[in-house]
Amino acid sequence: MRAVKLWAAFVLLAAANLEGETGQRAWLRYSRLDDAEVRTYRKDLPAVVVPLGQGLLIHSAQGELLRGVRGMLGQTLRVESKVPPEGAIVLGTLDELRRAAPQFHVAVRLAPDGYVLKTIYAGKLRYTVVAAANERGVLCGVFALLRKIALGQSIHGLDEKESPYAPIRWVNQWDNLDGSIERGYGGRSIFWDDGHVRSDLSRVGDFGRLLASLGVNGCSINNVNADSRMLASDFIPEVARIAEAFRPWGVQVVLAVDLGSPKILGGLETFDPVDPQVAAWWKTKADELYRAVPDLGGFVMKADSEGRAGPSAYGRTHADAANAAARALAPHGGLLFYRAFVYDHHLDWRNLKNDRALAAYDNFHPLDGQFDSNVVIQIKNGPIDFQVREPASPLFGGLRKTNQAVELQITQEYTGQSRHLVYLVPMWKATLDFDMREPRAGTPVKALVAGKAFDRPEGGFVGVANVGLDDDWMGSQLSQANLYGFGRLAWNPDLSARQIAEEWTRLGFGNDPKVVATVVRMLLGSWRTYENYTGPLGLQTLTDVTGNHYGPAVEASERNGWGQWHRADERGVGMDRTVATGTGFVGQYPAPVAAIYESLANCPDDLVLFFHHLPYTARLHSGKTVIQTIYDLHYDGERAASEYVNDWESLRGRVDSQRYDQVLAQLNYQAGAAEVWRDAVTNWFLRASGIADGEGRVGRYPGRFEAEKMRLEGYMVTPVTPWEDASGGQAVECLEKRCSASLTWDGAAGWYALRVQYFDQNKGVSRFLVWVGNQLVGKWLADDHLPAAKLDGSSSTRHTIAAVALRPGDEIRIEGVPDGGELAAIDYIEIQPRGREATGTAILRHSRAVRLRSVFTPSD
Ligand code: GCV
Fold first, then answer.
1. What letter would DSSP give residue 846?
2. Using H for helix, E for strand and C for coil, what is the string for 77-125?
3. Residue 369 DSSP symbol
4. What is the per-residue pLDDT for 347?
5. 3 state DSSP class of 340
């Protein structure tokens, strides 16, 4: 009986919490806990809070504590300025605490930003102490205390001490001053609009709070492809406003700067970094900046990369360039981050020894020891560019006398652009935990970047966040897990991917065990799923590397200077990077690591085609051939993606309706996109290799009718480029006002799902109507915002009509009504017996059906 009552209470409470949420509060929702938990925490938490000192961050910590306790426990703490003769929560730096409450005897050694949470008894009185080496640490401690409450952890007898793993925990934003964000998927810039700082910076404050809750202590506010205007004197007050919005959260502003600034902006004749005039310009500029923003974190610089100005213009080194700006920052305590993402994008692909992967190490290893002590080399996790899987960059092991930081990409550029669920923490862990065996075995990359391995003064973690003004910050609710995960890993890279996923799910969606188990399972499998259908075995993301980096395009990374090659041809696939016969990249690793990658016997299957060129018939460690593995993994990936829809549907009623619907629509889209990827890549390799799929799937699609083979009225057949992005390599497009494509059903009578694969270009909103005989059975708008103007795998998407009764002889007719430059193009229709179409049901029920009612007039 008691269990029934508890269950009923849980359901009621859950229902009360299920009204729509936008996602803007992210993991700081502070939703009301259930009554039993409220009772426990009210008992364990004193009623009074005592902030020690007048500091801005102490004030934020106090405010946050009040806000969190009010939200989760429904009570308002009393604020006192002195430790009272009753239990209290005491917040302060260790120095303040020693002064105000010497009787507490809190004596610990903490790194900057580290904190202690401690329950202290004075007679019968119980105090909860949040103390830290500095004010930011106090704020971190308060967020940690609130997190414990939200996660349902005991705060009864606290005795915890935490210090961050590394001093640098920064995010970069690639925001342009016009308000766009390079590789940003969560809307327009929170900082800039139309060439100026936004008048309303409330989202900057909100973002600062999210970052502070994770212990992130710096944020660069403009694109690394930097506009030199950032440093203009009349622009500095705009930067100062952003710094002001971040300041209460202890987040330091960082600027991306252009090495060419002394010439472009300063009017000098040169930007040669060793020219004394140039050095003087940097110094004057830094002094000016620090007068306006005394807590500026420093600069980040992209030079000699992808067309940016660089020291090579004057025959100088990267060390010359970095040191010139770093010396101007040094007197103010500022850091200069110099990006190791330097490579020649005009490489000759015909030369089999050329390899972009070599570039970072080749450029920076010889300069080890020549950088000033406030320079940090910012190194992407892998040697290429944020691909779906890369080995750890060998440069992490190649710098002994230079500070370094790892650059991880939170924004999902090559990993589905927030439209595909990809939880990146396992990928980052694979790099951070990788044993570089330098200087000795047992040296993970995280220890190298944190400066622990070679005792460097600076080091740590940088994440390219690219949040935007969208309510959900990232362009999708589930992508927030990556921002959360970055921050948690930057604080403590020893946390497991599961631990972080579980924390994030509980904080974001509550403690319902089914929600937690389901979401965590989806998150943890999602990288592998995406990798399987986009580029397994180390092939990297098989996408358009010189374009939108989104849909399938197997050959796009071949035969161009950008160098993301896989060298697939009719005999085999993979990039030979061995020392013995390839580009020699393997030789950049310390010898024990090189021994793993150089030999086929040791090289893990996951990276085998990154390091070796193999015939399609070669057998992997798994015992399967290369080609069969490519086929199988793409089918596995597509199947796993379609199962996410069912997984998520099982949470209906347990997650608030707004986020439930948004995530469901996203997962439905992903399931369709995964099939586009699967078909594109497997057909490409079938054509290249001439070797059939042992399971007979590739090239055979029962129930699929190509649009180009249907009866067409007005529709014209058109080739699709690349050919693998459309079934049969062709589609039909409508150059008239209205066109139709029809077929006569000659299958058995029964219930069927009709799945229309069409193209939703971003040039208009075309309409589609599906008729069976004279009956309209489906209609929708092509109104998604996919990153594609042309017909290809990026614009290809699907609409499913869940259950239609068909009889032999029925005419099925798809009508398309173009709009703007969008030509209502169709690839094919698939007719599947109902029951094999679980994902389609969901589309109709949850995403489109609702919209259809409002956008079509009854006469349609
Ligand atoms: C900011 C990749 C991205 C670019 C990005 C660059 C970089 O090439 O596609 O958009 O530019 O990396 O990290 O500098």
1. I
2. CEECCCCCCCCEEEEEEHHHHHHHCHHHCCCCCCCCCCEEEEEEEECCE
3. T
4. 95
5. coil
pLDDT band of 20, cuts 50, 70, 90: confident
Query: Using CA atoms, how far apart are residues 179 and 192, in angstroms rounded to an integer?
Result: 5
Task: Give me the catalytic one of 269, 288, 306, 860.
Answer: 306
**Residue 224 CB–ligand 1 contact under 6 Å:** yes
830: helix, strand or coil: strand
For 264, other C-beta atoms within 10 Å of its C-beta total 16
pLDDT per residue over 605-648, tens digit each?
999 999 999 999 999 999 999 999 999 999 999 999 999 999 99
Q: What average pLDDT does range 515-525 have in this prediction?
A: 98
Ramachandran assignment for 703, one of left (phi > 0), alpha (psi -120 to 50 degrees), beta (any other):
left
**Rounded distance between C-alpha atoms, residue 500 and residue 491, angstroms:** 12
Torsion of Cα atoms, 566 then 570 then 571 then 575, to 10°:
-10
Cα Rg of the chain (Å, integer)? 29
What CA–CA distances, in Å, run from 497 to 19, 72, 500, 541, 680? 29, 26, 5, 22, 31
* 3-state DSSP assignment of residue 332: helix
Ligand 1 centroid–CA 459 distance in Å is 22
Query: Is the Cβ–Cβ distance between 788 and 764 less than 8 Å?
Result: no
Using most ligand atoms within 8 A of CB, pick from 175, 225, 257, 393 the residue to mutate for ligand 1.
225
Residue bearing the CA closest to ligand 1, atom 2? 385
* 573 in Cβ contact with 581 (< 8 Å): no
Residue 813 token pair: 């007719």
Atom of ligand 1 nearest to the CA of 305: 14
Identify the sign of the CA torsion 87, 92, 95, 99: negative
Q: Is 413 a catalytic residue?
A: yes
Structure tokens belonging to residue 647:
């997984």
Rounded to an integer, what distance in angstroms lies between the CA atom of residue 178 and that of residue 193?
Answer: 5
- The pLDDT, as a whole number, for residue 19 is 64
Which pLDDT belongs to residue 845?
34
Of 64, 175, 304, 385, the active-site residue reads 385
The predicted-structure confidence for 267-319, as pLDDT tens digits, reads as follows: 999 999 999 999 999 999 999 999 999 999 999 999 999 999 999 999 999 99
Crossing angle for the helix pair 425-432 and 513-534, to the nearest 10 degrees:
70
Query: Helix axis angle, 480-491 relative to 202-214, nearest 10°?
Result: 50
Please name which of 785, 675, 791 lies closest in space to residue 722, comparing C-alpha atoms: 791
Return the structure tokens found at 137: 């640490």
- Write a three-state SS string for 777-841: EEEEECCCCCCCCCCCCCCEEEEEEEEEEECCCCEEEEEEECECCECCCEEEEEEEECCCCHHHH
Contact 740, 717 (CB under 8 A): no
Nearest C-alpha to atom 12 of ligand 1 is from which residue? 385
User: How does residue 321 score in pLDDT terms, banded at 50, 70 and 90?
Assistant: very high
**What is the distance between the alpha carbons of residues 225 and 258, in angstroms, rounded to a whole number?**
8
CA distance 49 to 51: 6
pLDDT tens digits for 801-843? 999 999 999 999 999 999 999 999 999 999 999 865 544 333 3
pTM of the model: 0.95
Alpha carbon dihedral 676, 679, 683, 684, in 10-degree steps, equals 40
End-to-end Cα spacing for the chain? 55
Q: Give residue-wise pLDDT tens across range 22-42.
A: 999 999 999 999 999 999 999
Tell me the per-residue pLDDT of 80-99, one tens digit each, with 9 for 90 and over.
999 999 999 999 999 999 99
Distance (angstroms) between ligand 1 centre and the Cα of 236 equals 25
Distance from residue 595's CA to the centre of ligand 1 (Å):
31
Closest-CA residue to 355 (of 591, 627, 581, 570) = 581
Give yes or no for residue 170 CB within 6 A of ligand 1: no
DSSP state of 181: B
Q: Please state the length of the chain.
A: 860
Helices 497-509 & 135-150 angle (0-180, nearest 10): 70
